Amino acid sequence: MQNSEALALTAALLAAAGDLTRRIDEGVAARGFEARTSYGFAFTRLAPDGATVTDLAAHLGVTKQAASQLVDELVRKGYVERRPHPADARARLVVLTEHGWACTRAAEEAAAEVVAEWAASLGGEGEVRALRDRLARIAPYGPIRPAW
After folding, report:
1. Does 48 sit behind a cis peptide bond, omega within 30 degrees of 0 on the bond before it?
2. Which of 18, 45, 90, 105 could hold 59 in an S-S bridge, CB 3.0 to 4.6 Å?
C-alpha cells in the first residue's frame, strides 16, 4: 500500500469515527439528554455493573482527579450515583441511575440510526456486518476512549 492510500484510509476511518460520535451526541441531545462525548465513554465502562473512580480513570486515560470531577458532574446531573463497594470497604462503586441507563439507550438508538444509513449506503446489512468483522480483526482490544 502506498503512503497516499494509507493516508486516505486513515482519513476515512477517522472521519467516520468522528462523524459517528458527533451524530450519536446529536441523537442523545435530540432525545432530551445532555450530550457530552465524555459521558458516553464513561458510560461504556460503568455499564453493566459500575466501576470505581480508579477503574474509570484507567478506562478513560485520565487522572483519578479528572475522573472524580467527571463523576461529580454526572452525579449532579443524575446520571450516576456512588454506592458502597461490595468487596472493598474503602472504595465506592459508581453506577448508572435509571436516568443514566435511559441516556445509554438513547445513544444506542442514535447509533443504530447511523448504522442503518451506512447499510443503505453500502448495499445492505450484510455489508455492514462484513465491515464490522473486518474492522474487528484489526481493532485493538481494550477500552474505547476519546482521543483527548
Report:
1. yes
2. 45
- Angle of the 37-46 helix axis to the 64-76 helix axis, nearest 10: 100
Cα 6 from Cα 3, distance rounded (Å): 5
Tens place of pLDDT for every residue, the chain, 148 residues? 678 999 999 999 999 999 999 999 999 999 999 878 999 999 999 998 999 999 999 999 999 999 999 999 999 999 999 999 998 889 999 999 999 999 999 999 999 999 999 999 999 999 999 999 999 999 887 777 776 5
Asked if 46 and 96 count as a contact pair (C-beta separation under 8 A), the reply is yes
Grid cell listed for 127: 455489508
